Amino acid sequence: MNIEQDFSLKPYNTFGIESYAKYFARFGSIAELEECLAFNQPATNNLQQPILILGGGSNILFTQNFEGLVLKNELKGIELVKEDAAHVYLKAGAGENWHRFVQYCIQKNLAGVENLSLIPGNVGASPMQNIGAYGVEIKDVFHSLEAFHLQDKKTVTFNLNDCEFGYRESVFKGKYKGQFVITAVTYRLNKKPSFNISYGAIAQELETMGVKDLSIANISEAVINIRKSKLPNPAEIGNAGSFFKNPETDNEQFVQLKEQFPAIVGYDLHNGKTKLAAGWLIEQCGWKGYRKGDAGCHGKQALVLVNYGNAKGEEIYNLSADIIASVKEKFDVELSREVNIV
Ligand code: FAD
Ligand code: EPU
Question: Hey, which of 102, 119, 182 would you mutate to test ligand 1's pocket, going by the most ligand atoms within 8 Å of its Cβ?
Answer without folding.
Answer: 119
